[in-house]
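Researcher: Let's do a round of design. I'm pasting the structure tokens now; please hold your answer until I've finished.
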């Protein structure tokens, strides 16, 4: 009932949300990932849909139900997430990057299980930096010309406001949402700050769906 009565502030808009962690394979049965639950991203996808948008969520490995009416594309690695995101943002109006993308992946992926060789010496792993999905989309022609509004997320352990402002500038995006992590991972509530060119606005502690609805209204205000 509450969902049905949300104002349709994004009616006719196409919204793409990335959510959850990525999984970077090391061999066919092992890999590197993180504790992102995807809950915030899925809450935002739901809130955007309630607000009348046509919504796609590009999801890393998460254990969540797809919100009603939302199109879901499942991916594993950051590179797969980049490809699905570039395809989906080509005609989108809003891009919201909530995914906890692995910053690095193993430099090589073995096509067979890496076995102990009996020497007692552990293997040394080397890493390659993953593509920055948000920064890549933010540099696209569609974003640069104001047809695609990009929103970033940042979980910081300290000095939230300064780190969030710096990250917004570095990514070249109009709006960045900051929270103090990783304490919010998997929880059902959160508290956030919104950082834009005009400064910082606090959204006090609330459920993730309530914060998602507030964020959707803030995005709609900036995209009349
Ligand atoms: N992001 C992304 N692709 C990456 C890394 C991050 O799209 N390879 C997006 C996240 O979805 C988030 C924003 O960028 O919206 C900020 O992510 P964060 O990890 O806080 O920033 P980084 O630039 O990776 O910096 P660091 O982890 O060193 O703080
Ligand atoms: Ca990162």
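Researcher: That's everything. Go ahead.
Model: Designed sequence:
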């Amino acid at each position: 009932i509450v969902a049905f009565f949300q104002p349709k502030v994004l009616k006719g808009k196409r919204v793409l949300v990335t959510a959850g962690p990525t999984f970077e394979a090391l061999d066919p049965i092992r890999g590197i990932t993180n504790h992102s639950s995807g809950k915030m991203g899925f809450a935002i996808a739901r809130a955007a849909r309630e607000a009348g948008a046509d919504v796609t969520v590009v999801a890393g490995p998460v254990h969540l139900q797809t919100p009603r009416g939302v199109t879901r594309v499942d991916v594993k690695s950051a590179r797969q997430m980049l490809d699905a995101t570039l395809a989906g943002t080509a005609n989108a109006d809003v891009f919201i990057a909530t995914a906890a993308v692995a910053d690095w992946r193993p430099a090589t992926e073995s096509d067979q299980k890496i076995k102990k060789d009996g020497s007692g010496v552990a293997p040394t792993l080397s890493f390659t930096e993953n593509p920055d999905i948000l920064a890549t989309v933010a540099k696209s022609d569609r974003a640069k010309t104001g047809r695609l509004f990009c929103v970033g997320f940042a979980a910081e352990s300290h000095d939230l406001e300064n780190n969030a402002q710096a990250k917004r500038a570095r990514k070249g995006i109009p709006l960045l949402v900051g929270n103090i992590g990783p304490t919010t991972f998997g929880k059902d509530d959160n508290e956030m700050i919104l950082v834009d060119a005009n400064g910082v606005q606090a959204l006090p502690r609330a459920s993730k769906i309530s914060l998602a609805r507030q964020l959707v209204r803030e995005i709609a205000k900036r995209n009349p």
